[in-house]
Specification:
mainly beta, about 1000 residues, five-stranded mixed sheet
Length: about 1000
């Protein structure tokens, strides 16, 4: 190859990287940094020394020279183990080995050279200190080696709880990090964001098996200006690369069956034959088999230039359930088959030592064949259960690159594209018909007939034609190191996040009618509080669905300076700003495509911090940080409030006992789907529209002074390395939401009307908005204060562990983007910015007319966690024992009563029912590896992963609604503003129970959710 052609080949990838810098971009971490200085025996700096780094994670060794201050930096190193060698004229060479570098860490290695010949080498044995003394960011890292030794699920997310302030909470719909709900995190894989566009949760398609993961990082607070869109934690995943110029991988199989699981917990239910009684359905485990066979393989395509990694671990599950139906006493067996494919591929390319690029692909579709009827037999035996199913195609593409233009100038690019979809098939066609069972009223004989073409049963035929979500994200930054009053590492970048959503869904595509025999309807909108009843009761005609398409293009700029004023003191100074818009699903008739827009000047986010190396020996750090963090809004709010959702109800008198009379009144389109229209030619009690568009130009209810959501975080910590592998740390954090965005509602004559606003500010704080007798909307409050202590030991002498204790308080009136105040089967609602808490004025007050503030529903004052492993080497190979244990306070329980509409009110304030019991769980992993003869790398492994080892069944939730959960009944006030004067809710309930307008909840305060049963997963692997 001629010098000219070699120069051309080198210029091509550089040009690609430079071109990428002028398109919309956002930098994310997939590497770490090693830096230090070189001095002579007197302590004087040694400029011009040659510093070389090598390791199995690098295709080629990297070399830099020390600057005039004797400093060197390697800033784009993949996580792994390294050795660093220093050579300088007139000095003996020095070497440090076994340096373990983690993602996002900045390790400091200082060398003091001895006078001598250049052929002499001084090997400095031992590990680098575990403390990163130059950063104020609070993070927890789990390497592939640690992941391998710990009990876990099949996906990487099960180890997020290793971070002291992180834990899985059903009530927040995912992982709660420092008090923030599960919809406030972002999840990055190789720099690509796989967070759900709609809910903010981690898509299951992105929860890749741990066999593909090189390192997991959880940032809790103090993170740099390059990170945005998260008011909770930042979860970084770096996937494996080929590595080490040799071929390696595994072939494995994981197995679970019903015989490896303890009996399922009982289900709290309404008796299907008498809805005034509650009971526990004693469930038997479905017969099932879970298999996950697969492999990984990595190695060189071209040594020192191109590496590849590939992995495939599908998950194949089959369920079998025998059901005896209540309606006909027939017994049948039903099957459900699930398949999730996880296919991963990655190429790393290093055409020369200063440039490294990569590209990755994750293919993770999900398929379901067959549905299972309810265990208690209440389902309809005539539904085509075997024909039901769904398809969820999903794929992600990632790319990135790092170019070291000089030893002080580095250019980086990260990004990718993510696609998910969901679609149902085999949906039964027909009108959904449902009736309440009122033992005091005889159901007419006509209901004993079979109506061909109708589908009895509530919610039995939802139809999702599509739910397409895409995200295109790219990122770039430029880092430059210079000296000016100390050493600066200045990084700046530009980010884009392009989102798209296209759903089409109907809960009851052919229509839904519910017959309330003998019941009285209480008005909710134009006739609020009025009692209405036909000859036989009343009817509700209900349509709920989603449609429309929307896209948005969001950009950000950031600058971050890591300023080492002194060898012992580093300042982190950053500023981030964003431009965001929230789209409209309904465009036309003068409705703009941008419903909400925030400019760069409205989302200024300073990030400042300090890190002090107390003694200058890299062992003791004191740090602190302050930052403002903004959310990148999800699509739940625009879909519900800007024309993407249908939620309408019509109420009629029930005067004809023949159901067919009413079913014939449904209005349909040419395909037979129900139109959003009332029943034909019927007297109407009331029409309630729960989704009046808030950006209708004729009545725009978006606050003109709307400001973005913002969270404020203060953090102080200290960390001390007792040994190079054992560190103790303590941390205090205080964070609070300054303001949130919610759909704040009130009842109008047409239905529920929403103001898109900051609760407690702007239009919602203006008394004119609410009228006489109504208080203004209170400010959303969520304060989290925590003191954490932690001990972490890196793996050495055959064991490692991480132990932490957190004392905390989560207090306020706002639970977060995922609402722990709204539970379905114990799981919190994930509709960011559209929770129920501020939907109606009275929701923020109790029966005494006081604002409801207190411990939030996922407050756990005490939490202790332990993760660890011990490896026993013996003549038969080596055995690993990996326990994990956690014990936490229970969570608050609060009485609820629906008032004026179906919205709940905390009549006695938060936590009046006490707490759930103390929660604890022990998991355990044991495996044994047998090395094959004449090989150091090939081995056979057998393992057992046990979840909930002692089969504990702690109560996680209770039924807290005082009125019947099925009827939508509520307390009535006329006029509505009289609510705020205070009332005796128990007296009103008793009166309602007596006159039949209210029905008592038959299982109030009964346990409704339990800790999951023990299960065992067996595994086999051939590792090479």
């Amino acid at each position: 190859m001629t010098p000219k052609s070699e120069s051309f080949l080198r210029a091509v990838p550089i040009a690609v990287l430079l071109l990428a810098l002028v398109i919309p971009l956002a930098a994310q971490e997939t590497t770490g940094t090693i830096r230090g200085d070189v001095t002579d025996p007197s302590g004087a700096v040694v400029p011009g020394a040659t510093v070389e780094i090598s390791g199995p994670a690098l295709m080629r060794n990297q070399t830099v020279t020390t600057d005039s201050a004797g400093n060197f930096t390697f800033s784009t190193l993949p996580p792994g183990t390294y050795e660093v060698t220093v050579n300088a004229r007139g000095f003996s060479a020095a070497k440090r080995v076994n340096i373990e570098l983690q993602v996002g860490k900045v390790l400091r290695l200082d060398f003091r050279l001895e006078v001598g010949g250049t052929s002499e080498t001084v090997v400095v044995m031992g590990e680098a200190a575990i403390v990163d003394v130059s950063q104020s960011t609070v993070m927890a890292n789990v390497s592939a080696a640690s992941i391998d030794r710990l009990p876990k699920g099949r996906g990487f997310d099960t180890l997020i709880a290793l971070a002291p302030g992180a834990r899985y909470e059903d009530k927040t719909g995912g992982y709660q990090v420092d008090g923030a709900s599960g919809s406030e995190n972002i999840f990055l894989i190789d720099g690509m964001d796989l967070t759900s566009v709609y809910s903010g949760a981690l898509n299951k398609s992105g929860n890749i098996p741990f066999e593909f993961v090189q390192e997991l990082q959880v940032k809790s607070s103090g993170f740099e200006a390059q990170y945005g869109g998260a008011m909770g934690g930042v979860i970084n995943v770096v996937t494996k690369s080929g590595g080490n110029n040799g071929y390696h991988g595994d072939v494995g199989l994981f197995l679970r069956t019903d015989s490896m699981q303890a009996r399922p917990r009982a289900t709290l239910s309404i008796d299907p034959e008498d809805d005034t009684k509650g009971y526990y359905q004693q469930n038997e485990v479905d017969a099932y088999r879970y298999l996950s066979p697969g492999f990984t393989l990595g190695g060189p395509v071209l040594k020192d230039r191109i590496w590849f990694f590939a992995g495939y671990y599908p998950e194949l599950t089959k369920y079998e359930r025998e059901v005896t139906f209540l309606s006909n006493d027939a017994t049948s067996t039903f099957d459900r088959k699930e398949r999730r494919d996880y296919l991963n591929g990655k190429l790393d390319f290093a055409p020369f030592s200063k440039l490294r690029v990569y590209g990755g692909y994750i293919y993770s579709p999900y398929r379901v064949n067959g549905n299972l009827p309810a265990r208690n037999g209440s389902s309809d035996p005539n539904l085509p259960w075997a024909d039901r199913g769904s398809r969820s195609p999903a794929a992600s593409y990632t790319f990135g690159g790092d170019y070291m233009a000089t030893s002080k100038l580095v250019l980086s690019v990260r990004g990718g594209y993510n696609y998910t979809n969901y679609k149902d098939y085999g949906v039964a066609r027909g009108v959904s018909v449902y009736q309440n069972v009122n033992s005091a009223y005889p159901v007419p004989a006509q209901w004993k007939q079979t109506y061909v073409g109708y589908t009895p049963g509530y919610g039995s035929n939802p139809y999702q034609q599509r739910d397409i979500q895409t995200r295109f994200r790219t990122s770039a930054d430029v880092s430059y190191i210079f000296n000016a009053g100390g050493q600066h590492t200045l990084k700046s970048g530009w980010e884009t996040n392009q989102l798209h959503m296209d759903p089409f869904y109907g809960s009851w595509p052919d229509g839904y009618i519910r017959f309330y025999w003998g019941a009285t309807y209480t008005g909710q909108a134009a006739r609020a509080g009025e009692k209405m009843k036909g000859q036989y009761g009343y009817i509700r005609h209900y349509l709920y669905g989603e449609s429309g398409e929307a896209s948005s293009d969001n950009h950000a700029l950031f600058i971050q300076d890591s300023w080492q004023i002194h060898k012992r003191l580093t300042l982190q100074l950053g500023l981030r700003t964003e431009r965001e818009f929230v789209p409209s699903f309904a465009v036309g008739q003068n409705i703009p495509s941008k419903a909400i827009e925030f400019g760069f000047g409205q989302k200024l986010a300073p990030r400042v911090g300090f890190a002090l190396d107390v003694k200058g020996d890299g062992r003791w750090k004191v740090a602190g940080s302050f930052g403002l963090f903004y959310d990148l809004m999800k699509y739940s709010l625009p879909q519900g409030s800007f024309g993407g959702a249908i939620y309408q109800m019509w109420f009629y008198p029930l005067d004809n006992p023949d159901p067919a009379f009413y079913l014939s009144k449904l209005q349909r389109d040419a395909d037979g789907l129900a139109l959003v229209a009332p029943l034909k030619d019927l007297q109407l009690f009331e029409h309630v529209d729960w989704r009046i568009p808030s950006n209708d130009p004729n009545d725009n209810t978006i606050d003109p002074d709307l400001k973005p959501m913002r969270r404020r975080v203060w953090d102080f910590s200290t960390e001390y390395a007792l040994t190079p592998s054992l560190a103790l740390s303590a941390r205090f954090t205080h964070n609070s939401v300054d303001r949130v965005i919610e759909d704040v509602g009130t009842l109008s004559d047409a239905g529920e009307k929403y103001y898109i606003s900051n609760p407690g500010f702007g239009i919602t704080a203006d008394p004119k908005t609410w009228g006489t007798g109504f208080p203004v909307t209170p400010k959303a409050k969520r304060n989290y204060d925590a003191l954490e202590v932690r001990a972490e030991k890196r793996f050495s002498r055959n064991y490692h562990f991480s132990a932490s204790y957190t004392l905390s308080r989560l207090w306020g009136n706002y639970s977060g983007l995922a609402s722990s105040d709204e539970l379905t089967d114990g799981v919190g609602r994930q509709d960011p910015n559209a929770s129920r808490y501020f939907d109606l004025p009275w929701m923020s007050y109790d029966s005494h007319g006081r604002l409801v503030e207190g411990r939030l529903a996922t407050d756990r004052p005490h939490a202790f966690k332990f993760f660890g492993s011990y490896t026993w080497k013996n003549k038969l190979g080596q055995t690993n024992f990996g326990p994990s244990f956690m014990v936490m306070s229970g969570t608050p329980l609060t009485s609820e009563v629906a008032v004026i509409s179906s919205t709940p009110v905390y009549v006695d304030g938060r936590g009046d029912l006490g707490r759930t019991p103390v929660y604890s769980q022990t998991d355990f992993l044991v495996y044994h590896e047998v090395p094959l003869p004449n090989s150091e790398t090939r081995k056979i492994r057998l393992e057992a992963n046990i979840s909930n080892l002692f089969n504990q069944s702690t109560v996680l939730a209770r039924s807290t609604n005082l009125v019947h959960p099925d009827y939508g009944e509520h307390l009535s006030f006329e006029p509505q503003e009289s609510f705020f004067k205070g009332f005796d809710y128990q007296q009103m309930l008793n009166a309602g129970y007596a006159d039949g307008s209210l029905t008592r909840n038959p299982y109030f305060n009964w346990a409704s959710q339990f800790q999951g049963p023990r299960y065992i997963r067996l595994g086999f692997k051939f590792v090479f």
